[in-house]
Amino acid sequence: MNWLLLILAGFFEVGFATCLGKAKESVGTTATLWMVGFFVCLSISMFLLYKVTQSLPIGTAYAVWTGIGAVGTVLVGIFIFKEPAAFWRIFFLSTLIASIVGLKWVSNG
User: Fold this and answer.
1) Phi, psi angle pair for 57, to nearest 5°
2) Is the dihedral of CA 106, 5, 53, 19 positive or negative?
3) Half-sphere exposure of residue 78: CA atoms within 13 angstroms, side-chain side
4) What 8-state DSSP symbol labels residue 54?
5) In degrees, to the nearest 5, what angle opens at C-alpha 78 toward C-alphas 75 and 81?
6) Measured distance CA(42)–CA(44) in Å, rounded
7) Among 1, 17, 86, 90, who pairs with 73 as Cys (CB 3.0-4.6 Å)?
C-alpha cells in the first residue's frame, strides 16, 4: 500500500510542476487558478510523501518520489509543452526509470 501512495505522491508532484508551467503561460484569473492547482497538488504530494516515509526508508522514498516527478514532468514537457524529445533526453530518461525500478527492487520496504 505504501508503494501505491508513493506513486500517487509522485503523480501529484508531476501535477504541481504542470500547474507551474501552465501558470507561466497564463495571465490573470487563469494564472491564479493554475497557482491554486499548484498549491493543492503540492500539499497532497507532500502529505503523501510524509505518510510514506513513516514506513519506508526516507532515502528510497524520496529518491523514488523525485524520480517519478522528474520522469513525469519530462513527459509532460514533451507532450504538453512541446519540448524536444531528442535521443539523449529519452536515453537518460530511460536510465532514470531503470534507477527508480532498481531502488524499489532492492528496497526492504
Assistant:
1) -60, 135
2) positive
3) 13
4) T
5) 115
6) 6
7) 17
